[in-house]
Each structure stands twice: as C-alpha cells, then as structure tokens.
C-alpha cells in the first residue's frame, strides 16, 4: 500500500512541477515582447509567484521518486532508470535555468528575444516525453 501512495504522490507532484515548467517560459515570451513597463512588472510578479510555487513542487516530486526507487528497489541496476535519472537531472538543470532567466528579467538584463523563449519552452515537453517513455517501455 505504501508503494501505491508514494507512486500517487510522485505522479501528482511531477505533473504539478511540469505544469509550472511549461507555463513559466510562456511568461518569459510575453515579458520579452512587451514594451509596457506596467505589464512587464505584472508579468514579473506572476513569474516570481509561479517560480516559488514550482520550486516547492520539485522537492517532493524528487523525494517521492527517490524514496520509491530506493525502498522498493525499482530499476536500481536497470539502464532505463539510469537514463531516467539523467533526464531528471536535465529537468533540474532546466528548472535552475528558468530561475537564472527570471533573475535576468528581474534586473532588466534580458538580452534574448521572444523567439528564443518560444524554443526554450519546448524543452520540458521532450524531457517529459522521454522520461515517461522510459518508465512505461523500460527499453533497457
């Protein structure tokens, strides 16, 4: 029963974490496009709140996943789990990059266009796709 609860909590927190990672760069797209200082400040506030919330979601997502993996010895010696963990490290790196980008916007030091952020916004989609595929298919 503990396994099912951990799995449920892991899925809920991962889903919520990714929702934040999907939306935060969309705010960056809009911030990079606007020339209205009031709109910029409003979006900066939205990004700050979303980033804080997303930070809080990442922690239990990782903890529940590791707990499940260690306690129930899921994939400890399997290649698919090693690949998944590498991709999760990529998600954490992406999240960190989102934080750094926010700080650039906060300091009015953004130098990238909205087009860059549109492409940047696609990265978590592929990370999630590959992670889910590894967990479901377990190819190696």
Automatic annotation (TrEMBL):
It is a multi-pass membrane protein. Binds 1 heme b (iron(II)-protoporphyrin IX) group per subunit. It is found in: Cell membrane. The keyword Chaperone does not apply. Pathway: Porphyrin-containing compound metabolism; protoporphyrin-IX biosynthesis; protoporphyrin-IX from protoporphyrinogen-IX: step 1/1. It catalyses: protoporphyrinogen IX + 3 A = protoporphyrin IX + 3 AH2. Its cofactor is heme b. It is an enzyme of class 1 (oxidoreductase). Heme binds at residues 10, 84. Keywords: Cell membrane, Heme, Iron, Membrane, Metal-binding, Oxidoreductase, Transmembrane, Transmembrane helix. Its EC number is 1.3.99.-. Its main location: membrane. The chain crosses the membrane at residues 6-24, 57-74, 80-98, 119-137. Belongs to the HemJ family. Catalyzes the oxidation of protoporphyrinogen IX to protoporphyrin IX. Homodimer. This is Protoporphyrinogen IX oxidase.
